[in-house]
Design brief:
The protein is mainly α and 401 residues long. It is 60% helix and 7% strand. The two termini are 21 Å apart.
């Protein structure tokens, strides 16, 4: 690998783009090389050897080797941020606040009512939607040039939610463009059924499009998350509780998906039957830990946590009817409850078959939630709001090279 390629990392590039994982991998691979001394050996070898110039005369590349090494390492550890990037970071931060405000307007019942001064509900909705589309587009555009990955992760989640609701948005005149921004057709919106707009942005349904955008904007811009800061790294002090409920849910899900739980026992008459009490106890524990995990983890700022919670919520939503046959119900906030009598009367062979797939899926994603909650994932999130990199202080490197 050439010297140029070895150091080829553009620190001003956004970690939000398609090469984000590659860039992060490159950064931490290079960090490991710094720690084990590979960089120093490579640089000393390069600058300490001789080469021939264009006239054929041997020249020594060792020109202030130590200063060059120190300069290069300092640039790698503390990349500079361009004015354009700083502007994008600032625009993203302010844009998220504006976006949350515009969503709030579309969630208010008063927006969908005529006022005494003659302003119609249609006019109010069109005005609110124009504001929302404008703020949404500003956030998406700013995020593409931003290095605040603790915020851009939430924007990516917003864009995913928008994509999933593209058909419903199109019905009310809001079109999703190829670059991820939105376009409003005011004429179509004016003739649309306003109840569809209200339902799409409903604050009563935590799984509605509007609620999803609002929560992501809130978490991305929130400063209320309890954390401690040391050497430019942050740690969520509530991860233990969150991780524990996720780990417990994983255990319950695996149990409900296993064959052992459904092993038949003999009743007092010597007939083989399912151990209903044991299965019910596991199902109740599953419901309890499912709800505890969501209650604790939905406010996380970790994109890995939020993604896997979304996968679980979506799978549960898609299986609402089947779950209902066994006594499970899902409320508007996405939380589960269990009717014990209905569960006891259910065909346990069908329960076993269902949880073999559904339970395994929940267990897999709960395991990932637990993983992200119990690792210092935020230290690899890229640039902080102060434009410094979330990696250990220079003393960590100085001790190794």
């Amino acid at each position: 690998m050439s010297f140029t390629n070895f150091w080829n990392f553009n620190s001003s590039n956004s970690l939000y783009g398609s090469n984000s994982s590659t860039n992060l991998y490159s950064l931490f691979s290079q960090r490991a090389a710094i720690k084990n001394g590979s960089y120093k050996k490579l640089l000393q070898s390069y600058f300490g050897t001789t080469s021939k110039d264009s006239s054929g005369t041997s020249t020594n590349r060792n020109r202030g080797t130590n200063n060059i090494i120190d300069t290069l390492l300092r640039e790698k550890m503390y990349p500079t941020v361009s004015e354009e990037t700083q502007k994008a970071n600032s625009s993203l931060t302010s844009g998220l606040n504006s976006l949350q405000s515009s969503v709030s307007t579309l969630q208010k019942d008063s927006t969908f009512e005529d006022t005494e001064n003659g302003q119609t509900a249609v006019d109010k909705v069109v005005s609110a939607m124009k504001n929302y589309v404008n703020n949404y587009n500003n956030v998406v555009t700013a995020s593409k040039g931003s290095t605040l990955t603790n915020k851009t992760a939430y924007v990516a989640n917003m864009m995913s939610a928008t994509s999933k609701n593209a058909d419903q948005l199109a019905e009310i005149g809001v079109t999703l463009k190829q670059d991820g921004t939105l376009q409003l057709d005011e004429t179509k919106l004016k003739s649309a059924d306003l109840s569809k707009v209200q339902k799409l942005f409903s604050s009563d349904n935590i799984q509605s499009y509007g609620s999803t955008i609002s929560s992501r904007a809130k978490f991305a811009g929130a400063s209320s998350t309890t954390s401690t800061s040391t050497n430019n790294t942050s740690t969520d002090t509530s991860t233990t509780t969150k991780g524990t409920s996720a780990a417990a849910l994983k255990t319950d899900s695996e149990a409900l998906a296993s064959s052992e739980l459904y092993a038949k026992i003999k009743d007092t008459d010597g007939n083989e039957t399912y151990n209903i009490d044991k299965i019910l106890s596991t199902a109740k524990s599953f419901v309890s830990n499912y709800n505890k995990m969501f209650d604790a983890a939905e406010s996380s700022s970790n994109s890995g946590v939020l993604s896997n919670l979304s996968y679980i919520r979506e799978r549960t939503k898609n299986n609402t009817n089947t779950l209902g046959q066994f006594g499970f119900s899902v409320d508007k906030n996405g939380r589960l409850s269990l009717d014990e009598d209905t569960f006891k009367k259910a065909d346990m062979s069908k329960v076993q078959k269902f949880f073999k797939d559904y339970g395994s899926y929940v267990a897999s994603n709960a395991s990932r939630v637990n993983y992200y909650m119990n690792t210092n994932a935020n230290t690899a999130s890229g640039y902080t709001s102060t434009a410094s990199y979330n990696i250990p202080a220079s003393s960590d490197y100085n001790a190794s090279i």
